[in-house]
Structure formats: C-alpha cells, structure tokens
Write a structure and sequence with these properties.
It is built from three helices and five strands. The protein is of the alpha/beta class and about 80 residues long. The protein has a single domain (about 1-84), classed as 3-Layer(aba) Sandwich (Oxidized Rhodanese, domain 1), CATH 3.40.250.10. Strands 1-5-4-2-3 form a five-stranded parallel sheet, covered by helices on one side. Strand 4 (about 55-60), helix 3 (about 65-75) and strand 5 (about 80-84) form a beta-alpha-beta unit. The longest helix is centred in the C-terminal third of the chain and has 12 residues, at about 65-75. The protein is globular.
Length: about 80
C-alpha cells in the first residue's frame, strides 16, 4: 500500500478525501479535503471514485484510511494513504 505524509501532498496530485467524523474534519482546518465519513464512504465508495483517477485518503488516526486504502487497492483503485 502506498503511503505519504500530509506535508508532501499538493492539490494538483489528485483528490484528498478525509474519512473523519464531520466534527473532527471541521477542527482539522483542512478545507481543501473532501469530507466523507468512513461508514458512508465504505458503503458508497463506487459513487465517489473513478478507477481512472488518483485519490489520497486520510483520517484522524490513520486506522480507517488504512482499511479503506487496502480494500480500494484490492478493487483496482489508485489510492494512497495520507498520514498526518
């Protein structure tokens, strides 16, 4: 699984998706990330993602983003886990 630090992420690399709870997302100050709570994202990932695009996935502690990236990579998506 591909991983990178948030400090190395740039907007032109691809979409950044934050799987944190909405309250945690607001407090993070990362307004350039798209917030989709983990449970919702895992049920409807196919509505948000396109296999021809690159995605960067993060969450508050890294646990949900790790799980999501593992599954999505297995399903053929180009994803990278972003660590704070």
């Amino acid at each position: 699984m591909k991983k990178m630090r948030l400090s190395d992420y740039h907007l032109n690399m691809g979409e950044l998706i934050d799987l944190s709870h909405p309250d945690d997302y607001v407090m993070s100050g990362l307004s350039y990330a798209k917030n989709i709570p983990y449970q919702h994202f895992m049920m409807y990932y196919d509505k948000y993602l396109n296999k021809n695009k690159k995605y960067y996935i993060m969450c508050l502690k890294g646990i949900h983003s790790h799980r999501a990236c593992a599954l999505l990579e297995y399903l053929g998506y180009d994803v990278t886990q972003v660590l704070k």
